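re: that chain from earlier
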Amino acid sequence: MLAAFLNSFKIPDLRKKLLFTLGMLVVYRAGCYIPTPGIDGSALSEFFNRINQTQGGTLFGIMNMFSGGAMERLTIFALGIMPYISCSIIIQLLTAVIPALEKIAKEGKSGYQKINQYTRYGTVGLAIVQSFFIALWLENPARFEGLQIVTSPGWGFRILTVLTLTTGTIFIMWLGEQIQEHGIGNGISLVITAGIISRIPSAGYQLYVLLSPFSPAKRTLEPYKVLIMATLLVGVVFAVTLVTQAQRKIPVQYARRIVGRKIYGGQSTYLPLKVDQSGVIAIIFAQSLILFPATIASFIPNTGFQRFAQSLIRGHLLYTVVYALLIVFFCYFYTAIVFNPDDISENMKKYGGFIPGIRPGVNTAEYLDHVMTRITLAGAFFIAFIAIFPDFLMAWLKIPYLVASFFGGTGLLIIVGVVLDTIKQMESHLLMRHYEGFIKSGRIKGRR
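^ sequence. v structure.
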């Protein structure tokens, strides 16, 4: 792999793309430390430490993870790329249920550009709304247990905060698009991954403090537990990689057609059905829903509601059960939105394709729906297990959640998926120029 990485810099085109991507990510990380005017950063950081310890995380914790810690410091990139992600998911879901948007999406490149433009407009609107309510939230000291976050509250601060945070989100979106166009890999995904990876030094420092190799009296984590954690990390990454790439390959045979003097079709191929169709989206939906009561409870001082919210925080059995069930539900929900067996069956029939032993048309659609339902169940159970695995690890080894979060959950799934996608793109550049790639066989293959 080291030789393949060095070979990447021997190709001028690929070297230029890699350096451009790294440069854009450096610009993004630099912006995560530029504070928003009018904010006491130390007081805000102390508040986030409190809610992370006492409430087990809120929606702000998710935003903080996706922004690479910019939310807890309320920098110019505090909103991160979350408004764009939310709007992209909303547009994707609306495309499946609104015929007009579905028609636009099927127009090819021009349709993609229109959908992307709608997503940008939606991102700006969503960022304005979110930043305005964040400004109102920051101005109330009662919500921060007496901490004074805003030095000069008022409409001046609100307008400045809306302009700053919205502009920061738009700039991050532009950075992602530039990486997509001139760099390597998916720009938005790389921005998110850079934010998640930036938390590794903090997690490593917490692990070092727990281990205290030079002060055995202060040690709260035994060395053998670190070895267990290292073994588990390798195993979890390996399992996530396999399931992320896993496919059920449905054989498809195309009938031979004679058009004029030419013969078309007659070949055999396969239809790849991904085991994990929803990916990290199911976890994002489930986290947003289950953490919503805890987030609202921080605003509403109602004893009954806060008692209910306390039962749905990390570390409680009800939280774990509801969280896992929500992930399974959203895996099926998202798969039903993006996978349409009727359209696939109709397209196969249109071009003379059929599954051996299955009649074209309705029978093919029912067969594809049956197969997808079965493999989605396995994928949903695995994703649910990966999502709740850090909670079990945290309770078992008595380690902070920041350390345990790298053994599963949203962060690990995003990192593995983005790294695999980036390696694939680098692999294609290397193989086109007859260099040895990262993978011995020449490409990353999915499990059958």
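The first helix runs from residue 2 to 8.
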